[in-house]
Amino acid sequence: MKSLQILMAMLIISATSVFAADDAPRERLLMDFGWQFHLGDAPDAGAQFDYPEFARLDKNRPDDDAQEARNTPLRVDAAAVNLGKNVSFVQPDFDSASWRTLDLPHDWAVELPFDRHGDKDHGFKPIGANFPTNSIGWYRRTFELPAGDKGRALWIEFDGVYRNCLVWLNGVCLGRNVSGYGSFFYDISRTANFGGTNTLVVRVDASRFEGWFYEGAGIYRHVWLVKTGATHVAHWGTFVTTAVTNQDAEISAETTLRNDSESPVNAKIISEIVDADGKKVAQGESDSIALGKNSEQMLAQKINVANAKLWSLENPQLYKMISRVEVDGKLSDLYETPFGIRTIKWDVNQGFLLNDKHVFIKGTANHQDAAGVGIAVPDALNVWRLEQLKKIGDNAYRTAHGPATPELLDACDRLGILVFTEQRRLGHTLQSFGDLENLLRRDRNHPSIIAWGIANEEMSAQGKDEAAQTLAVPNQNLIHRLDPTRPATFAMNWDWGNGFSKVMDVQGFNYWFQSTHSKNRGHFLDMDEFHKAFPNTPGFGSEEASTVSTRGIYENDKTRGYLSAYDRNLPRGGDAQREWGSTAEAWMNYYAARPWLAGAFVWTGFDYRGEPTPYSWPCISSHFGILDTCGFPKDNFYFYQAWWTDEPVLHILPHWNWPGREGQEIEVWVHSNFEAVELFLNGQSLGKKDMPRLSHLEWRVKYEPGKLEARGYKNGKVAATTFVETTGASAKLVLTTDRKSINADGEDVAVINVSAVDAQGREVPTANNFVRFEITGAKIIGVGNGDPSCHEADKGSERSLFNGFAQVIVQSTKNSGMINLAAKSDGLQSAALTLPVKAVKLRAASQ
Ligand code: GAL
Question: What is the pTM of this model?
Fold first, then answer.
């Protein structure tokens, strides 16, 4: 029975040090290493495996929308607990020695070849309903549990599995999780084999899609084994909110205390607040409460922190609440909740305020896949990607279109990046509400999160009042109930003012350009009309731009699937082939003229697999990114950097290698934030131009090989120069790494780029040489080059350069030493790179 008891905590501030680490009775063990994997066969299971009952299960419990609409909860029922009883490979004694061994995170879709019959929006991989032989994956791994764990609370937690998975422990079905984006967990205290070996089996069914973009397949995020005392902080059991007055902060902590033991207990919580340096700054202690067996209670505490250091973009100060659970004076759990102290406000006229200061949201929306690895992105690579975005001046991240991996949110907390996160699918079933609740309970302590999205572009529902009541309001209410501190929003393309618009806390606008159609269409408001008609609803661009461009390309080429990198190309779609996006320049100017708009999220920061709009095969990746799939900047990177940062920016496009175009006019652009720019070709001035704000400069230049130079003026004087230069042919490869060393933990990665230079050492911007990599001391987990039409394998150790660059993602093993990486290409001088791998303390892992 769940009851609620609010206890005001006694405030104690003491100078004693924080709890000793060896007090900690909670263990959180990584389960990523040592899995075995086998691709299943859906239509003819018997041919490979003895499991006709799965076909029945899938038939009886489909996870499609029709089923959801009938409000049928998707749960494993009593009968399903026996599910797999007759299936040998679900059983502990199954011999899976012949299965492939791998470590998580894993995406098997990215390992498949490209196939023109695959789904375009999912990146032309042979996976999904039409490819049943590729769409079911089985994972097995064993782990040991000491006899002493009996009586403790134990669960296995999955950060994300794409998708529709069934999980067994020791032959017993623990449950089923449908959505490929959320975290979920299973209590194993009653199924575990204490003092022996345990066998965990996961069947992953990726035969249905959830989105219209590359979604991958497999256990693509971390898996954890959590152990703690039987009386403990419940799973995702804390919620910390903060109120700031002058220098001080009042911390409100709600902690759900759970007793999984078979007898009643007297328990209390002592909550320490620790600052970023690990110094205790405050403490609150609850009264002792009687907790019945198998029950939980929420305890509310208020703790004051004097001279609070606020979490901000410039100085993302984090605190930790360490909750010590004591049963009859003995420590039973020690649970950490990182949080930040800050205020947020969405204002209808001023936009967004952080700590009462206006912040223009300079955001990017991003899908989760990356070159080489698909959706199985190691934590270090996620951090690296965020760092690339920060270089543009990006201060906000939209986790399109679903819950992010928790480590990405941790990184945003640490790096000072605002986050707009959203659920994957809007619904009004137990399942969809459950998914939303999980998202909030898991993520609501992150200071970086500033809004919850109920959905993205629900075309058939968003404009209807009835759907607003049956879908938007219940989802928003759930958000309010679980988190009264942040607004709910909806990313809406047109229909503004109708349906969902009338009920949401904050209006998300997908594409201001839709405004230009509203006058003709008549049935929805444009953004200015909306602002007048809804004087209490703040607004922001939940998606903007969708400008399409290919790195290093300066002419559209439909056959090869490339788009020029001038800020010019818009996507087209729908029956009328209407445009919806806009150039970077157009949306930035539109928003600059409307201070009531809180800012916007550019669609997208990085190119992603799938949605090769406006093209199709052979194009397999999107073109929307400011950076390509590898994180190599396209030219618009410098436009955003010029207007989103205070750094001096001076960038010329295109490159200056145009053999055969001598005497012809080439369109030259400069992205800059200097007050004026002068262009020179081989020393001859081509004119000085004033730099208009939020714009670029253009010259038409008759091509002659040589040096094209730009000089940036500040206070009337030349303050910076840059140039592009005609190069010779590729002569030599060059390897560069983002890191000076990596950690020998089997998880860390180095992002290593390869380029080609000519005989004089100048980067060749058009080089397309085929490169082979050889490595010792680490492993290559993926290669890429950002070419949206390249069908070379992501896995392997070879890749062509695309317009000068390719990338190899190198991951450490648990052995320290030295990585030796060589890059070789026929006819070119090879490159070699060494990178130390340092011994580190490993994260606690389950064996
Ligand atoms: C939006 C949609 C995104 C993506 C984008 C491409 O309408 O929300 O997921 O498809 O278009 O421009």
Answer: 0.94
